[in-house]
Design brief:
Length: 255
Amino acid sequence: MVIEHEAGDLTCTVEASTPLAELQSQVGADGQMLALDPPGQAALTVGEVFDRALFGPRAHRYGLPRDLVLGVRVRLAGGNLIRGGGKVVKNVAGYDLPKLFTGAEGRLGELLELTLRLHPLPDSTCTVVTEPCDPRPLEQLAPACVEYAWPDGGMLVRFESPAAAGLAAAARELVGGELVADDAELWDAHRRRQAGLELHRCPPTDAASHCERLRAAGATTIVGRWARGWLFADVPADRRPLSPLEQRVIERFAS
C-alpha cells in the first residue's frame, strides 16, 4: 500500500510488501515514476527491489536503488523496530541508514516501509540501436539508458524527454545506427535478457576488456550498463561480503 504520496515533492512512502507494479500505477496517475525498471518487475514487491538492490537500464541516468531511497522503517533481527532517513531529498543528518539496508539481502533486518524519491514520467522516448562503441561522447546528450547486449542487440541508447527524438538524432550522428521511436517493446525485450544473470562490476573504462574476460570464463549472454561498469552475465559472480559496519549492526542487534 502507498502510505503517502507527496507529488509536489516527488516523494512517496510505501509499505515494503507493496507490489512494484501497484506503486508505479499509483504514482503514474500523477505523471511520476519510481525510476527503477528491473527485469521481472511485475512479480516484485518494493521491498524485494530495495533489499536485493535490483535495477534495470534506467539506472544509467537515475541511479541505483540506494540513490532513490530516502527513509526506511526496519525490523532488526532481535525484533527491534528502527527508522532511518527522512521524507525529503536533502537529508544528511547522521549516518545514512537507508543506504546501509539497501542491498543487504535481509542480513541486517527486514524492510517494512520505505520513503522513496520519484521522477517525472518521460513525455516521449526514442532509441538509437548501434554497434558497441565508446559511450563517453554520448554523455553530453544526457541519455537515460546506455545498454550493451551480446551476442545480439549491440548498443542501445535511449532518450527520455520532450526532445528525445532530436537528441537521438544527434546521438546517431555521433555513433551511427538506426532510430527507433516506438521503442517500448524493444526495451521490454532487453530487460528480459537480464533476467537470471549475475551482476559483475568493473571500472567503466574496463567494460570492453571485462566483457572479454566474462566470455573467456564461459559467458554466453552479457547485458548491462556499459558506461557505468554494471554488467550482467550467465557466469557466477562473487557475493559481496559484509562490511565491518554491517557486521557490527548484526552483532549489536542479533538478540
